[in-house]
Specification:
The chain has 15 helices and 10 strands. By secondary structure, it is of the alpha/beta class. Strands 9-8-7-6-5-4-3-10 form an 8-stranded parallel beta sheet, with helices on one face. A two-stranded antiparallel ribbon has the order 1-2. α5 links the parallel β6 and β7. The longest helix is centred in the last third of the chain and has 18 residues. The mean pLDDT is 94.
Length: 341
Protein backbone atom coordinates (compact mmCIF):
# COMPACT_ATOMS: atom_id res chain seq x y z
CA UNK A 1 0.00 0.00 0.00
CA UNK A 2 1.07 3.56 -0.69
CA UNK A 3 0.20 6.57 1.44
CA UNK A 4 -0.11 10.29 0.74
CA UNK A 5 -0.94 13.61 2.35
CA UNK A 6 -4.56 14.73 2.32
CA UNK A 7 -3.99 18.15 0.83
CA UNK A 8 -2.37 20.43 3.40
CA UNK A 9 -4.34 18.97 6.32
CA UNK A 10 -1.40 17.14 7.85
CA UNK A 11 -3.40 13.90 7.62
CA UNK A 12 -1.86 10.90 5.83
CA UNK A 13 -4.13 8.44 4.09
CA UNK A 14 -3.84 5.25 2.09
CA UNK A 15 -3.86 6.00 -1.63
CA UNK A 16 -7.17 4.25 -1.96
CA UNK A 17 -10.18 4.93 0.23
CA UNK A 18 -12.64 2.16 1.02
CA UNK A 19 -16.02 3.51 -0.04
CA UNK A 20 -18.66 2.34 2.42
CA UNK A 21 -21.83 3.04 0.42
CA UNK A 22 -22.08 -0.72 -0.12
CA UNK A 23 -22.38 -1.38 3.62
CA UNK A 24 -25.62 -1.01 5.53
CA UNK A 25 -29.12 -2.31 6.07
CA UNK A 26 -30.57 -2.95 2.60
CA UNK A 27 -34.08 -1.98 3.66
CA UNK A 28 -32.93 1.33 5.15
CA UNK A 29 -31.84 3.24 2.04
CA UNK A 30 -31.84 3.59 -1.72
CA UNK A 31 -29.70 0.51 -2.51
CA UNK A 32 -30.88 -3.10 -2.40
CA UNK A 33 -27.45 -4.67 -2.97
CA UNK A 34 -25.65 -3.56 0.21
CA UNK A 35 -23.88 -5.96 2.58
CA UNK A 36 -25.16 -6.91 6.02
CA UNK A 37 -23.07 -6.17 9.10
CA UNK A 38 -21.13 -9.43 9.25
CA UNK A 39 -20.18 -9.27 5.57
CA UNK A 40 -19.30 -5.57 5.89
CA UNK A 41 -17.03 -6.26 8.85
CA UNK A 42 -15.24 -8.99 6.91
CA UNK A 43 -14.45 -6.61 4.03
CA UNK A 44 -13.39 -3.79 6.38
CA UNK A 45 -11.12 -6.17 8.29
CA UNK A 46 -9.58 -7.49 5.09
CA UNK A 47 -8.99 -3.95 3.88
CA UNK A 48 -7.18 -3.10 7.11
CA UNK A 49 -5.01 -6.18 6.69
CA UNK A 50 -4.08 -4.99 3.19
CA UNK A 51 -3.03 -1.57 4.46
CA UNK A 52 -6.14 0.50 3.75
CA UNK A 53 -6.44 3.21 6.40
CA UNK A 54 -8.89 5.62 4.73
CA UNK A 55 -12.64 4.92 5.00
CA UNK A 56 -15.40 7.02 3.45
CA UNK A 57 -19.03 6.91 4.54
CA UNK A 58 -21.98 9.30 4.93
CA UNK A 59 -24.98 9.82 7.15
CA UNK A 60 -27.12 9.46 4.04
CA UNK A 61 -25.89 5.95 3.23
CA UNK A 62 -28.57 3.42 4.06
CA UNK A 63 -30.18 5.54 6.75
CA UNK A 64 -26.98 5.91 8.75
CA UNK A 65 -26.40 2.15 9.05
CA UNK A 66 -23.27 2.38 6.90
CA UNK A 67 -21.75 4.64 9.55
CA UNK A 68 -22.87 2.25 12.28
CA UNK A 69 -21.39 -0.82 10.60
CA UNK A 70 -18.11 0.98 9.89
CA UNK A 71 -17.79 2.36 13.41
CA UNK A 72 -18.39 -0.98 15.11
CA UNK A 73 -15.97 -2.80 12.78
CA UNK A 74 -13.19 -0.28 13.33
CA UNK A 75 -13.63 -0.35 17.11
CA UNK A 76 -13.20 -4.13 17.01
CA UNK A 77 -10.36 -4.31 14.49
CA UNK A 78 -8.26 -1.13 14.58
CA UNK A 79 -6.85 1.54 16.84
CA UNK A 80 -8.61 4.85 16.27
CA UNK A 81 -5.39 6.76 15.64
CA UNK A 82 -4.40 4.36 12.86
CA UNK A 83 -7.40 5.00 10.62
CA UNK A 84 -8.81 8.05 8.84
CA UNK A 85 -12.60 8.24 8.80
CA UNK A 86 -14.47 10.56 6.46
CA UNK A 87 -18.19 11.09 6.61
CA UNK A 88 -20.55 13.51 4.92
CA UNK A 89 -23.53 15.67 5.83
CA UNK A 90 -26.39 16.54 3.50
CA UNK A 91 -27.66 20.01 2.61
CA UNK A 92 -30.39 21.47 4.80
CA UNK A 93 -33.70 19.85 3.76
CA UNK A 94 -36.75 21.89 2.83
CA UNK A 95 -38.57 20.99 6.03
CA UNK A 96 -35.65 22.25 8.11
CA UNK A 97 -35.60 25.53 6.19
CA UNK A 98 -39.37 25.90 6.67
CA UNK A 99 -38.96 25.21 10.39
CA UNK A 100 -36.33 27.95 10.70
CA UNK A 101 -33.44 25.58 11.47
CA UNK A 102 -30.21 27.39 10.66
CA UNK A 103 -27.49 25.88 8.55
CA UNK A 104 -25.19 25.92 11.56
CA UNK A 105 -27.66 24.01 13.71
CA UNK A 106 -28.40 21.57 10.90
CA UNK A 107 -24.67 20.87 10.62
CA UNK A 108 -24.29 20.47 14.39
CA UNK A 109 -27.17 18.00 14.57
CA UNK A 110 -25.85 16.05 11.58
CA UNK A 111 -22.36 15.82 13.05
CA UNK A 112 -23.63 14.69 16.43
CA UNK A 113 -25.77 12.01 14.76
CA UNK A 114 -22.78 10.78 12.72
CA UNK A 115 -20.56 10.64 15.81
CA UNK A 116 -23.23 8.57 17.59
CA UNK A 117 -23.54 6.26 14.59
CA UNK A 118 -19.77 5.83 14.37
CA UNK A 119 -19.29 5.57 18.12
CA UNK A 120 -16.44 8.08 17.86
CA UNK A 121 -15.62 11.41 19.48
CA UNK A 122 -14.35 12.91 16.22
CA UNK A 123 -14.18 12.38 12.48
CA UNK A 124 -10.99 13.01 10.56
CA UNK A 125 -12.61 14.52 7.47
CA UNK A 126 -16.09 16.05 7.50
CA UNK A 127 -17.51 16.63 4.03
CA UNK A 128 -20.39 18.74 2.74
CA UNK A 129 -22.06 16.10 0.55
CA UNK A 130 -23.10 18.58 -2.15
CA UNK A 131 -23.30 22.33 -2.63
CA UNK A 132 -26.26 23.71 -0.68
CA UNK A 133 -27.97 26.46 -2.66
CA UNK A 134 -30.39 27.02 0.23
CA UNK A 135 -27.73 27.89 2.81
CA UNK A 136 -24.99 30.55 2.64
CA UNK A 137 -21.62 28.83 2.47
CA UNK A 138 -20.37 31.26 5.12
CA UNK A 139 -22.77 29.69 7.60
CA UNK A 140 -21.34 26.23 7.02
CA UNK A 141 -17.72 27.39 7.04
CA UNK A 142 -18.13 29.14 10.37
CA UNK A 143 -19.88 26.09 11.86
CA UNK A 144 -17.28 23.70 10.46
CA UNK A 145 -14.54 25.84 11.94
CA UNK A 146 -16.23 25.63 15.36
CA UNK A 147 -16.38 21.85 15.01
CA UNK A 148 -12.65 21.73 14.27
CA UNK A 149 -11.83 23.94 17.23
CA UNK A 150 -14.00 21.78 19.48
CA UNK A 151 -11.98 18.72 18.42
CA UNK A 152 -14.90 16.97 16.74
CA UNK A 153 -13.45 17.32 13.23
CA UNK A 154 -9.82 17.37 12.05
CA UNK A 155 -10.29 18.71 8.50
CA UNK A 156 -13.11 19.60 6.13
CA UNK A 157 -13.92 18.69 2.55
CA UNK A 158 -16.63 19.11 -0.05
CA UNK A 159 -18.23 16.83 -2.64
CA UNK A 160 -20.15 17.41 -5.84
CA UNK A 161 -18.98 20.99 -6.30
CA UNK A 162 -17.56 23.02 -9.16
CA UNK A 163 -14.08 24.50 -9.03
CA UNK A 164 -15.49 28.04 -8.81
CA UNK A 165 -17.54 27.07 -5.76
CA UNK A 166 -14.55 25.61 -3.94
CA UNK A 167 -12.45 28.65 -4.89
CA UNK A 168 -15.14 31.01 -3.61
CA UNK A 169 -15.53 29.09 -0.35
CA UNK A 170 -11.80 28.88 0.33
CA UNK A 171 -11.33 32.58 -0.43
CA UNK A 172 -14.03 33.39 2.13
CA UNK A 173 -12.40 31.02 4.60
CA UNK A 174 -9.05 32.72 4.18
CA UNK A 175 -10.58 36.20 4.59
CA UNK A 176 -12.40 35.24 7.81
CA UNK A 177 -9.84 32.90 9.36
CA UNK A 178 -12.07 29.86 8.89
CA UNK A 179 -11.11 26.31 7.96
CA UNK A 180 -10.73 25.74 4.22
CA UNK A 181 -11.76 22.74 2.18
CA UNK A 182 -8.73 20.44 1.86
CA UNK A 183 -10.36 17.82 -0.35
CA UNK A 184 -12.91 17.48 -3.14
CA UNK A 185 -14.91 14.31 -3.79
CA UNK A 186 -16.46 14.51 -7.25
CA UNK A 187 -17.52 12.11 -9.99
CA UNK A 188 -14.38 11.19 -11.96
CA UNK A 189 -13.22 8.09 -13.81
CA UNK A 190 -12.14 6.96 -17.28
CA UNK A 191 -15.75 7.15 -18.49
CA UNK A 192 -16.45 10.58 -17.00
CA UNK A 193 -13.55 13.01 -17.24
CA UNK A 194 -15.34 16.36 -17.12
CA UNK A 195 -13.36 17.21 -13.98
CA UNK A 196 -10.38 17.83 -16.24
CA UNK A 197 -11.98 21.00 -17.60
CA UNK A 198 -11.14 22.92 -14.41
CA UNK A 199 -11.07 20.93 -11.18
CA UNK A 200 -7.97 18.80 -11.65
CA UNK A 201 -5.80 21.82 -12.49
CA UNK A 202 -7.37 23.99 -9.79
CA UNK A 203 -6.83 21.31 -7.14
CA UNK A 204 -3.24 20.71 -8.17
CA UNK A 205 -2.44 24.42 -8.07
CA UNK A 206 -4.00 24.83 -4.61
CA UNK A 207 -2.87 21.59 -2.91
CA UNK A 208 -6.40 20.24 -2.62
CA UNK A 209 -6.70 16.46 -2.51
CA UNK A 210 -8.98 14.86 -5.08
CA UNK A 211 -10.76 11.79 -3.69
CA UNK A 212 -13.16 10.96 -6.53
CA UNK A 213 -16.14 8.65 -6.23
CA UNK A 214 -17.48 6.23 -8.84
CA UNK A 215 -13.87 5.28 -9.54
CA UNK A 216 -14.96 2.18 -11.48
CA UNK A 217 -18.21 3.63 -12.87
CA UNK A 218 -20.39 1.31 -10.84
CA UNK A 219 -18.32 -1.70 -11.95
CA UNK A 220 -18.38 -0.92 -15.67
CA UNK A 221 -14.63 -0.33 -15.77
CA UNK A 222 -13.93 -3.60 -13.96
CA UNK A 223 -15.29 -6.08 -16.50
CA UNK A 224 -15.78 -6.52 -20.28
CA UNK A 225 -18.66 -4.84 -22.05
CA UNK A 226 -21.82 -6.93 -21.84
CA UNK A 227 -21.06 -8.52 -18.47
CA UNK A 228 -24.11 -8.42 -16.23
CA UNK A 229 -23.92 -8.38 -12.44
CA UNK A 230 -26.48 -7.92 -9.70
CA UNK A 231 -25.37 -4.35 -9.12
CA UNK A 232 -25.51 -3.49 -12.82
CA UNK A 233 -29.08 -4.82 -12.85
CA UNK A 234 -30.27 -3.19 -9.61
CA UNK A 235 -28.35 0.07 -9.33
CA UNK A 236 -30.81 2.40 -11.02
CA UNK A 237 -28.81 5.49 -10.04
CA UNK A 238 -25.68 4.23 -11.79
CA UNK A 239 -27.71 3.25 -14.84
CA UNK A 240 -29.06 6.79 -14.96
CA UNK A 241 -25.49 8.10 -15.02
CA UNK A 242 -24.06 5.74 -17.64
CA UNK A 243 -26.73 4.13 -19.81
CA UNK A 244 -27.14 7.16 -22.09
CA UNK A 245 -23.44 7.11 -23.04
CA UNK A 246 -23.01 3.33 -23.12
CA UNK A 247 -22.02 3.18 -26.80
CA UNK A 248 -19.20 5.72 -26.48
CA UNK A 249 -18.16 4.28 -23.13
CA UNK A 250 -17.86 0.78 -24.59
CA UNK A 251 -14.88 1.93 -26.67
CA UNK A 252 -13.06 3.11 -23.55
CA UNK A 253 -13.93 -0.07 -21.65
CA UNK A 254 -12.51 -2.16 -24.51
CA UNK A 255 -9.29 -0.15 -24.28
CA UNK A 256 -9.10 -0.92 -20.55
CA UNK A 257 -9.44 -4.61 -21.35
CA UNK A 258 -6.67 -4.39 -23.96
CA UNK A 259 -4.25 -2.62 -21.60
CA UNK A 260 -5.10 -5.12 -18.87
CA UNK A 261 -4.27 -8.03 -21.19
CA UNK A 262 -0.98 -6.35 -22.13
CA UNK A 263 0.05 -6.15 -18.47
CA UNK A 264 -1.53 -9.44 -17.33
CA UNK A 265 -3.51 -7.29 -14.90
CA UNK A 266 -7.18 -6.94 -14.06
CA UNK A 267 -9.35 -4.23 -15.56
CA UNK A 268 -9.87 -2.90 -12.03
CA UNK A 269 -6.12 -2.49 -11.61
CA UNK A 270 -5.78 -0.65 -14.92
CA UNK A 271 -8.72 1.69 -14.31
CA UNK A 272 -7.52 2.60 -10.82
CA UNK A 273 -3.87 2.86 -11.83
CA UNK A 274 -4.90 5.48 -14.38
CA UNK A 275 -6.94 7.38 -11.77
CA UNK A 276 -4.03 7.25 -9.32
CA UNK A 277 -1.92 9.21 -11.82
CA UNK A 278 -4.37 12.10 -11.49
CA UNK A 279 -5.81 12.05 -7.97
CA UNK A 280 -4.74 11.61 -4.35
CA UNK A 281 -6.96 8.76 -3.15
CA UNK A 282 -9.92 7.46 -5.17
CA UNK A 283 -12.92 6.23 -3.22
CA UNK A 284 -13.52 2.64 -4.31
CA UNK A 285 -16.57 0.64 -3.37
CA UNK A 286 -15.60 -2.77 -2.04
CA UNK A 287 -18.11 -5.52 -1.32
CA UNK A 288 -15.90 -8.53 -2.13
CA UNK A 289 -12.35 -9.53 -1.20
CA UNK A 290 -11.46 -9.39 -4.88
CA UNK A 291 -12.45 -5.71 -4.91
CA UNK A 292 -9.94 -5.02 -2.13
CA UNK A 293 -7.26 -7.00 -3.94
CA UNK A 294 -7.87 -5.14 -7.20
CA UNK A 295 -7.62 -1.76 -5.50
CA UNK A 296 -4.44 -2.68 -3.68
CA UNK A 297 -2.95 -4.26 -6.81
CA UNK A 298 -3.40 -1.01 -8.72
CA UNK A 299 -0.63 0.50 -6.58
CA UNK A 300 1.98 -1.69 -8.27
CA UNK A 301 0.82 -1.22 -11.86
CA UNK A 302 2.84 1.36 -13.81
CA UNK A 303 1.19 2.59 -16.99
CA UNK A 304 3.50 3.94 -19.71
CA UNK A 305 2.76 6.76 -22.13
CA UNK A 306 1.37 4.35 -24.71
CA UNK A 307 -1.02 2.88 -22.15
CA UNK A 308 -2.21 6.32 -21.09
CA UNK A 309 -2.76 7.39 -24.68
CA UNK A 310 -4.73 4.24 -25.46
CA UNK A 311 -6.96 4.76 -22.44
CA UNK A 312 -7.52 8.48 -22.97
CA UNK A 313 -7.76 9.10 -26.70
CA UNK A 314 -11.19 7.50 -27.18
CA UNK A 315 -12.95 9.74 -24.63
CA UNK A 316 -15.66 12.10 -25.86
CA UNK A 317 -17.21 14.91 -23.79
CA UNK A 318 -20.10 13.86 -21.57
CA UNK A 319 -23.05 15.86 -20.24
CA UNK A 320 -23.17 16.37 -16.50
CA UNK A 321 -25.21 13.69 -14.75
CA UNK A 322 -26.35 12.83 -11.25
CA UNK A 323 -25.74 15.25 -8.41
CA UNK A 324 -23.51 17.54 -10.47
CA UNK A 325 -26.28 18.03 -13.02
CA UNK A 326 -28.46 19.26 -10.14
CA UNK A 327 -25.85 21.76 -8.94
CA UNK A 328 -27.80 24.81 -10.08
CA UNK A 329 -30.05 27.21 -8.16
CA UNK A 330 -32.99 26.30 -10.40
CA UNK A 331 -32.60 22.58 -9.69
CA UNK A 332 -32.30 23.29 -5.96
CA UNK A 333 -35.51 25.33 -5.99
CA UNK A 334 -37.31 22.57 -7.89
CA UNK A 335 -36.14 19.92 -5.42
CA UNK A 336 -37.34 22.00 -2.47
CA UNK A 337 -40.69 22.52 -4.15
CA UNK A 338 -41.07 18.76 -4.68
CA UNK A 339 -40.28 18.06 -1.02
CA UNK A 340 -42.88 20.59 0.06
CA UNK A 341 -45.58 19.28 -2.30
Amino acid sequence: MQYTALGDSGIRVSRVSMGCMGFGEASAGQHSWTLDEDASREIITYGLEQGITFFDTAIGYQGGTSEQYLGRALRQCARREEVVVATKFLPRPAQAIDAGLSGAEHLRQSLEASLRNLGMDHVDLYILHMWDWGTPIEEYLAALTRAVREGKVRAIGIANAFAWQVAQANALAQAHGWERFVSVQNHYNLLFREEEREMTVFADQNNIALTPYSALAGGRLARPVGTVTRRLREDAYARMKYDATAEADAVVIDRVAQVAARHSASMTEVSLAWLLTRTAAPVVGMTKRSHVEGAVGAMDLVLDDADLAALEEAYVPHPLVGVMAQNTPAAARLNRARHRA
